[in-house]
Write a structure and sequence with these properties.
heterodimer, A: alpha+beta, Fumarate Reductase Iron-sulfur Protein, Chain B, domain 2, 2 domains, 14% strand, B: alpha/beta, Flavocytochrome C3, Chain A, domain 1, Methane Monooxygenase Hydroxylase, Chain G, domain 1, 5-stranded parallel sheet, 5-stranded mixed sheet, 17% strand
């Protein structure tokens, strides 16, 4: 048996509730939550969709670390402490020698709780939309595909792998205190389009100007928490550093 | 009452593509989706999207492969459209930012896929669906198209064979609202979760298909259910056909490449129905591994190529099965994957009701017939999503605004239905759902026979009775999962009933529908589409002709 200790909330009421779940080999935290919801307490609520770590719906704080519930094996969770009482958002966990049968599950930080583990994602989506996350092609659209070399395609791929799960947002100390800060996902997306040779120069410069602010790349504390928690190895901080470099280059050129 | 010229129900690839077309034609369009569009199951598609881009390839060749793959049940006029328009749609996605994998010369890379005579599957690593979904979502964002995120449509409103909108529930507060529209497009995907083993997302319960069914629209060819040959043991997460396209082998427990006994020329790249049956037969006859699986081996492809072309399934195998495919074979078994059947619709997504369209997996157009080829479903979404958008834009310019009174009545009756659902009962959603899924897996699976199918229908009827007394005790208004499940359960049972009954009556083997008591395809009696109509006593079946233009039915060999 495993105990899920779930932070619940409805309106102003906040409480922790424990669910005893019969675990089995291969069971994930998401499956354990379903066990609790279907068999023990139908009022429990959380988001989900793919159960295969590709859709980004089930982001939550598991043992104080932002993670996808569908990706975490119960057997692995047994090997780590719950970190209960630790108020910080952690990025890694130590392994324990003893078998730990409790898992602490809380909503993703830095977003308002709607109920239980469901948070208001709109501010997150809206921050991503602010950087104009779409491709604006050059004039003279080719009849066939744009040619692209493989190295460029691979470079872009690291950033198109983002599933907008907001785990980075939940781990980010800047996002915690500044609601205007675009955050790691939006800034990584900005770099994805900057890298794309299909994008026209004007749009690139416009996006660069958008992120050239304290709400943008200059707001980042470069603590790499987002890089650590990303389930898709997207590395937003590297993108932010690259964007900073491009902005500085441009200013130097302008000064000459 | 919320009013738009058109509403698109579903925010996956088909829905997004349709919405873009409508918007670009100057139509006021909104998307309603029970999950934010980027969470849609389209994003889980891995292997690719077919288009005859190669110099030596042609749409005719693509059409032939598709029709042969369909075991001659596909309508050949719609297949012609699918394959002719394929290159334009793929190039359009490239122009909209999809990060396709590339060849040395910088053009879009293409890989071999099952049942195809040419490597025509374009891909973005093994995350093609994800890349297409995000590209289309970016284009929707750019156009500022309104999306009602996390709303569940509970009913379509039909006035004198004309769809005038829908009733939907806002999941944030469980309130019902009228959506008034001159045209309504269904793009709600499949129903995989009525099976115990499915690659589908947990949200794929076929709810949209059941809305059309309950509104009197026939469901077509529902007995044709695709089982994907290679789903990961345990979770049944998809392991792309691209793994075999890139050279992967299937081995039984005796380390024999058993496909040589079933498809000696195509081997692992035979179409999905054939490979799924072969694997299932190996397992059933004791040549699988004890837990019920065979091995998919890509170790010989090498780490470099795996990281470049199959990074997603490598990660999935590590995370969900504890196996790194670079070092060890992947344990796989067949699982429900796709619905060839769906809401009966035509080459422009038109259903028999005016103003109601269906596209993508929820529809049966029918381009996939009795068995879909890998790489054709992503193509289907963008080709017919766009076409339905074009048709709907014309249609709404010819008609008057809908009648409010009908919509208001529908809202009141829907409010009543929901309030009647609330209360205590002995029944449990989980029990009924689990029992349904087990029943479908065991009795309406890869191999079918009269006795099992009859048993399945009886069981479904029992479950329907149980479901009628299911009540919802959770009163919370925000994201009431119990209520959501109770609403969707009825539709799951409806669809299961059409599938099981269609399979029972169709006494032949064709594509994915394989009857061990009727082993041959029977063109004389069964070269026809099934149409299932809702009645209070269960589905009423009718049949209609298959459109054959160029390719006369032949024996299907690989």
């Amino acid at each position: 048996m495993i105990t899920l200790k779930v932070k619940r909330q409805e309106e102003e009421n906040v409480w922790y509730q424990e669910y005893e779940v019969e675990d089995r080999p291969g069971m994930t935290v998401l499956e354990a939550l379903f066990y609790a919801q279907e068999k023990l307490d139908t009022s429990l609520t959380f988001r989900y969709a793919c159960r295969g770590a590709v859709c980004g719906s089930c982001s939550m704080l598991i043992n104080r670390i932002p993670r996808l519930a569908c990706k975490m094996q119960i057997s692995e969770m047994r090997k780590e402490p719950t970190n209960e009482g630790n108020l910080e958002v952690l990025i890694t966990n130590k392994k324990t020698e003893i078998d730990n049968s409790v898992i602490l599950i809380e909503p993703l930080p830095n977003l308002r709780v709607i109920r239980d583990l469901v948070v208001d994602m709109e501010p997150f989506y809206s921050l991503v939309e602010d950087i104009k996350p779409w491709l604006e092609m050059k004039e003279n659209v080719p009849e066939k595909e744009n040619l692209m070399d493989r190295d460029t395609q691979v470079k872009i791929e690291q950033y198109t792998n983002c599933i907008l799960c907001a785990l980075c947002h939940g781990s980010c100390p800047v996002a915690a205190k500044d609601k205007q800060y675009y955050g790691p996902a939006a800034l990584a997306k900005a770099w994805r389009f900057y890298l794309d040779p299909r994008e026209n120069e004007e749009s690139k410069q416009e996006r660069l100007a958008i992120v050239d602010s304290e709400s943008g790349v200059w707001g980042c504390d470069t603590v790499y928490k987002c890089v650590a928690v990303c389930p898709k190895k997207v590395a937003p901080t590297l993108a932010i550093n690259e964007l900073r470099g491009r902005i500085e280059d441009k200013k130097e050129k302008g000064a000459k | 009452m919320i009013t738009h010229d058109t509403i698109v129900i579903g925010g996956g690839l088909s829905g997004l593509r349709a919405a873009i077309e409508l918007h670009d034609k100057g139509v006021d369009v909104a998307i309603i989706s029970k999950v934010p569009p980027i969470r849609s199951h389209s994003g889980a598609a891995q292997g690719g999207i077919n288009a005859s881009l190669g110099m030596d390839d042609s749409w005719e060749s693509h059409a032939f492969d598709t029709i042969k793959g369909s075991d001659y049940l596909a309508d050949q006029d719609t297949v012609e459209i699918l394959t002719k328009e394929a290159p334009d749609r793929v190039l359009e996605m490239e122009h909209w930012g999809t990060n396709f994998s590339r060849k040395e010369d910088g053009t879009i890379a293409q890989r071999p896929f099952g049942g195809a005579g040419f490597p025509r599957t374009c891909y973005a690593g093994d995350r093609t669906g994800h890349n297409l979904l995000h590209s289309l979502h970016e284009q929707v964002t750019k156009r500022n198209i309104k999306v009602y995120k996390e709303w569940l449509v509970t009913r379509l409103v039909i006035d004198d064979n004309r769809c005038i909108g829908a009733i939907a529930m806002n999941l944030f507060d469980s309130e019902l609202e009228i959506f008034k529209a001159k045209a309504t497009l269904l793009a709600t995907g499949g129903y995989g979760r009525i099976y115990k083993r499915s690659t589908n997302a947990l949200i794929n319960k076929g709810h949209g298909i059941s809305l059309a069914y309950r509104a009197g629209i026939p469901l077509q060819d529902m007995e044709f259910v695709q089982f994907h040959p290679t789903t990961l043991l345990g979770t049944n997460i998809l392991i792309t056909e691209g793994a075999r396209g890139e050279g992967g082998y299937l081995y039984n427990k005796d380390h024999e490449r058993f496909m040589k006994r079933y498809a000696e020329n195509s081997m692992e790249l035979a179409p999905r129905d054939i490979v799924a049956r072969s694997i299932q037969q190996e397992i059933d006859e004791g040549r699988g591994f004890p837990e019920g699986y065979v091995e998919l081996d890509i170790t010989h492809i090498g780490k470099k190529l795996i990281e470049e072309r199959l990074p997603g399934i490598r990660q999935i195998s590590i995370d969900f099965a504890g196996v790194d495919p670079v070092e060890k074979p992947i344990p796989v078994q067949p699982g429900q994957h796709y619905s060839m059947g769906g809401v009966s619709s035509d080459k422009d997504g038109c259903t028999p009701a005016n103003g109601l369209y269906a596209v993508g997996e929820c529809a049966c157009i029918s381009v996939h017939g009795a068995n879909r080829l890998g790489g054709n479903s992503l193509l289907d979404t963008v080709v017919f999503g766009r076409r339905a958008g074009v048709h709907a834009a014309n249609y709404i310019s010819t008609i008057d605004a809908p009648n409010d009174e009908m919509l208001e009545d529908a809202l009141e009756s829907e409010k009543m239905n929901i309030s009647e659902l609330m209360g205590d009962s002995e029944e449990s959603y989980a029990d009924i759902k689990d029992s349904l899924r087990k029943n479908m897996q065991e009795n309406v699976g890869v191999f079918r026979e009269r006795e099992k199918l009859e048993k399945a229908v009886v069981k479904i009827k029992e479950l329907e009775v149980q479901a009628r007394s299911l009540r919802v005790k959770t009163l919370s208004k925000q994201f009431n999962l119990e209520l959501l499940n109770a609403i969707e359960l009825r539709g799951m049972l409806d669809l299961a009933h059409t599938i099981a009954l269609g399979a029972l009556v169709r006494e032949e083997s064709r594509g994915a529908h394989y009857r061990t008591d009727h082993l041959e395809r029977d063109d004389a009696n069964w070269m026809k589409h099934t149409l299932a109509y809702f009645t209070q006593d269960g589905p009423r079946l009718e049949y209609k002709d298959v459109t054959i233009t160029t390719f006369q039915p032949k024996k299907r060999e690989y």
